[in-house]
Design brief:
- The protein is built from twelve helices and four strands.
- The protein has 363 residues and is an alpha+beta fold.
- Strands 1-2-3-4 form a four-stranded antiparallel sheet.
- The longest helix is centred in the last third of the chain and has 27 residues.
């Protein structure tokens, strides 16, 4: 047993050394730096920050480099590091209404109050490989920009709300729970559902959101507003007696306008779906808002049609890619004792079945 253990340790050490060599790649090619990943693979960095629940572009870029580009492994590294950090307190809710937007679009009104700002987007690009990017050359010319307008941009939903055309913004009575401290329990309130969706795997959330658009949930939606920009993070300091700004974060916020609802006492009105994510993370924010709306069927008095996106436990229990990876990848680790037990069971059952067959043939 001791020899086997030592042999395993040697193999693991060799595997780690080989991993470091594979991570570096061809020594003849310049090494990829954390700064390069942070500045040039921004969308990957944003995804790791969102699913890792830690806003730090430098650490997210380091995790991507360490994980050789494996996004889920990078998220795992960030979450593990996050658990080592001390907690000094809780910030106040971010005021996204005061966001300094770099991108803000609406699919509901062409002439949206406050204007539409395309910003940096793939929406209107041709999906053709640009081989010029493979050649070393001059940096692109600066993009033309309108004069900066630092005034808060009004919300689309606020204009619908002024006419009573959309449900009032739901307000929670109790302080929200914290999924990073307490395990998720069902049924979960909306605040916990949104936390789980914000940390959920982008691909899983996208698949759930897509299912709602294909009829599994009946929540046809319009993007009322999608905005990206920076917001201040404020924290109350008891010694001062007021809140102070401790930094800024970039966020993507999406609010969808969904199909009508109504009752005997309330006239028909639109309903809401909501998504919020670190950095420029549009696909995640939109997907999150669609799934959020599907999960609200109970509080809106709707029928559960059996759609996967309406199953709270299914969605929230299977969306976490770190937890899913742990369960999935552990099966490739040694299970020798378990397998030997099942192997012996199969052999015994086969022997008993064979003996029974022989006895029947003898009769």
């Amino acid at each position: 047993m001791y020899v086997a253990v030592k042999g395993g340790e040697a193999a693991i050490e060799a595997a780690h050394a080989w991993l470091a060599e594979a991570r570096r790649g061809d020594p003849g090619i310049a090494s990829l730096t954390v700064a390069q990943i942070r500045e040039q693979l921004t969308l990957a960095v944003n995804r790791v920050m969102a699913e890792g629940s830690l806003y730090d572009p430098d650490l997210a870029a380091l995790a991507i480099r360490q994980a050789r580009g494996d996004m889920i492994e990078a998220v795992f590294l960030i979450r593990a590091y996050r658990t080592t950090l001390p907690r000094f307190g809780a910030s106040l809710p971010a005021d996204t209404g005061a966001m300094r937007v770099v991108r803000r679009i609406s699919a509901t009104f062409k002439d949206a109050p406050g204007g539409q700002v395309l910003g940096p987007t793939f929406d209107y690009t041709h999906r053709l490989l640009d081989f010029a990017l493979a050649a070393e050359g001059a940096d692109p010319a600066p993009a033309p920009r309108a004069a900066a307008d630092l005034r808060p941009v009004p919300r689309i939903a606020a204009f619908l709300g002024s006419e009573g055309l959309i449900e009032p913004q739901p307000v929670a009575d109790d302080p929200p729970g914290d999924l990073t401290r307490e395990p998720l329990a069902f049924p979960a309130d909306r605040a916990l559902r949104l936390q789980a969706l914000a940390r959920a795997d982008e691909g899983f959330t996208l698949g759930m959101a897509y299912s709602t658009q294909r009829g599994y949930g009946r929540t046809h939606a319009f993007v009322g507003e999608l905005r990206i920009g920076t917001v201040e993070v404020e924290m109350e300091v008891p010694e001062l007696g007021f809140a102070v700004c401790i930094g800024e974060v970039e966020l993507t916020e999406c609010e969808t306008v969904n199909q009508f609802t109504g009752s005997k006492s309330e006239p028909p009105q639109f309903t809401r779906g909501y998504g919020l994510s670190f950095g420029q993370n549009e696909r995640k924010a939109i997907s999150m808002s669609l799934v959020d709306r599907a999960l609200r069927w109970r509080e809106l008095g709707e029928e559960n049609t059996g759609a996967p996106a309406q199953d709270e436990e299914f969605v929230l229990a299977h969306g976490d890619n770190v937890q899913a990876t742990g369960f999935l990848e552990h099966i490739k680790l040694p299970h020798y004792v378990d397998f030997q037990a099942e192997l012996e069971l199969i052999r015994r059952l086969r022997a008993e079945a064979l003996a029974g067959a022989r006895a029947e043939s003898a009769e």
